[in-house]
Specification:
Oligomer: single chain
Number of helices: 15
Distance between the termini: 32 Å
Strand content: 15-25%
Mean pLDDT: 94
Low-confidence stretches: 1-7
Radius of gyration: 21 Å
Largest sheet: 8 strands, antiparallel
């Protein structure tokens, strides 16, 4: 068992928007050690939280009592190549998972564009990709194993403790420590990617058609420009040979243009705010077209080295055009300019109690600001617009809502709280974030 030293006790998330100092840190190597840590926390009267990669923008992962560092509890435990079901340890990052699945000839059906998160952190906060017929990562979960507050190890699925399963797939770490996740995967496949700039008005006019016609469709819009960067990813037939972007062009497009050059423009905009609008328009005009194909996870995931803060809300699909119209009208009036683009994605309705897509086909709007630039006015404006249509905030991204507000947006909110009371009556897994969004 590894215990903390002073540097290990201090935690800070990726964006620097949340921090905490744990009273104790343990880094278990197996389920028995996870169980021992939870029991020890209970005996000491400490709260306990699992610690992943810290990629959430909120303090959902902050541990002020005992932190259970899952970085030594990683890897694929087993894989059934006939059913595609894979059991993975909860501290495994999506990047590692994708590589191990690829080695097995398997793949996740859908992914987001960041792979730094742990698999348990990603599902627990409702991480998603895009695709009108597809759900978030949690919809690909077939079963979970958790350590509850009393130290018991339990499994849940659609047939075994189904209410715990409906709650724990997007559980915010508030129900227990996830030890393993059983995922439904499929044979590895190749995606063909088409990325190109298009007039925003044309994109919005054909949005439903584009979402229906493509396996995965999304777009980015720079707030002071009239162009959108559209991304269409579609499956190729089994046995298709990938035709990836050449190494030189890949390096220039992603490392030089999207990271180094864009990062330099952001730093300049932060120093000289009056340049943000022209720099933003320049970024929009510099977007280029590209087509390539590759193994699915290599197309889904994008390298992101420019740091930012982010808020994201899920809204009913039919409300998207009105929300975007308000943003287009009101963002240019903000006192502090916006450097980063707005990202728009879609997902199918699901039945997971705290999923942002629970019971409705959803559109996701993610807004960003370069780290160190003023963002509060922008984020407040965004929230005021999406709140008018019943927006649900991404659990891992910045928002100001509390339990009273969230209860009105989730039909099964109180059912979730009932499960929490049953498995954690003393609120052993609570932290200030879960106290705000779930209540005491």
């Amino acid at each position: 068992m590894t215990r903390s030293t002073a540097p290990q006790a201090a935690w800070r998330n990726w964006a620097g928007t949340a921090s905490a100092v744990a009273g104790e840190v343990r880094a278990p190597r197996d389920v028995a050690e996870i169980t021992a840590a939870v029991k020890a926390a209970g005996e000491s009267g400490m709260s306990v939280r699992a610690r992943g990669s810290g990629h959430s923008f909120t303090s959902v992962g902050a541990a002020h009592g005992m932190a259970i560092d899952l970085s030594r509890w990683t890897g694929v435990e087993s894989a059934d190549l006939n059913t595609g079901e894979v059991i993975v340890r909860s501290g495994t990052t999506l990047k590692t998972l994708n590589a191990e699945l690829d080695h097995l000839g398997l793949a996740m059906t859908n992914l987001g564009d960041i792979d730094a998160q742990t698999v348990s952190g990603a599902i627990s906060t409702g991480t998603h990709g895009t695709g009108a017929r597809l759900g978030g990562l949690a919809t690909q979960v077939a079963a979970l194993e958790l350590v509850l507050a009393d130290g018991s190890v339990v499994s849940c699925s659609e047939s075994e403790r189904p209410e715990l399963f409906a709650a724990a797939r997007v559980g915010l770490g508030a129900l227990g420590v996830i030890t393993t996740v059983t995922l439904r995967t499929e044979p590895a496949f190749v995606l063909a990617a088409q990325e190109r700039p298009e007039p925003l008005d044309a994109v919005l006019a054909s949005l439903d058609e584009q979402c229906a016609a493509n396996d995965h469709f999304e777009f980015y819009w720079f707030p002071y420009g009239q162009q959108a960067l559209t991304k269409r990813n579609n499956r190729l037939p089994a046995g298709a040979v990938p035709e990836p972007m050449g190494r030189v062009r890949q390096y220039v497009e992603y490392e030089v243009v999207e990271n180094a050059l864009f990062g330099a423009m952001c730093r300049l905009g932060r120093r000289v705010p009056s340049l943000v609008r022209p720099l933003n328009k320049l970024s929009a005009s510099a977007m280029s077209s590209r087509e390539y194909s590759d193994r699915s996870h290599k197309v889904f995931v994008t390298s992101r080295k420019v740091r930012f803060v982010e808020s994201e809300y899920a809204i009913p699909r039919e409300a998207l055009s009105g929300v975007l119209a308000e943003l287009r009208k009101r963002v240019p009036l903000l006192k502090d300019p916006v450097m980063f683009p707005v990202e728009v994605r879609v997902a199918a309705a699901d039945d997971i109690w705290l999923s942002t897509a629970y019971g409705r086909d959803s559109a996701y709007l993610a807004i960003h600001q370069y780290l160190g630039m003023p963002y509060r006015e922008y984020f407040d404006l965004f929230e005021s617009i999406v709140n008018e249509v019943g927006g649900r905030p991404h659990w891992g991204k910045m928002h100001s809502l509390d339990a009273d507000s969230l209860r009105t947006r989730y039909p099964r909110f109180d059912d979730f709280l009932g499960v929490r009371s049953a498995v954690d009556p003393e609120r052993r897994f609570q932290n200030p974030y879960t106290e705000r969004v779930l209540g005491r």
